[in-house]
Amino acid sequence: MAKILPLNIDEIRSCLVDTQKNFNKINATLTVQRKPPTDEVINNLIAGYVRIDEHLQNGTDLFKIGNSRLILELNHIVLYHHADISVEEDKSQFKATKKHFYDTKNAGIGPLMEWLAFNKNTDIWKKTAGTFTHIISQPQLFLEGNHRTGSLIMSYLLMRQGYSPFVLSYDNAKHFFEPAELTKNRHKKTLLDEFLHLPKQTRKFAKLLKSEQSSKFLLNR
Fold it and tell me: Residue 91 sits in a domain of what CATH number?
């Protein structure tokens, strides 16, 4: 396994805050406008990066049989880690997401694991990008927060191979959001989408991931 360097959380936060500050400019370039990330969204996402860093440094395989709860936990972190909700709301949201995560036909964690097994020899860029398109295409893996959780999972997969994580920035936002918008409206079990449209968006994401490699998001030790 490649050497895994720890994340530079301060640099990731700085990048996300810069993205937040420039979001009006980003929206001006997008076909479909998006809501700027709030401070809570950024804090939750940072908590997610911290968690995948812990998993990587501990040698935890998120996709090992029996560890699917850790993937589900990532989604809960990006949505509710710093959220001001009651215990009852928290339990209700988690219960609904868990049911969707494990029970949804043609989606959920089962089909994702099958896809990863089928693509185990695919190069890291296409595999990581394909995982993301699988997560955000219909039916999506989670009820909410698929883009954010998907970004964390992409980062985890890349870092396991010695590469740097994906972090949304002012410079890459358009190239992330535009194909993501098209992907989320596609259905992974519709033949035209499965064999034409989703592979096309996967190639775009793979190109983006490869071009966005930056050592500034990793700590040298």
Answer: 1.10.3290
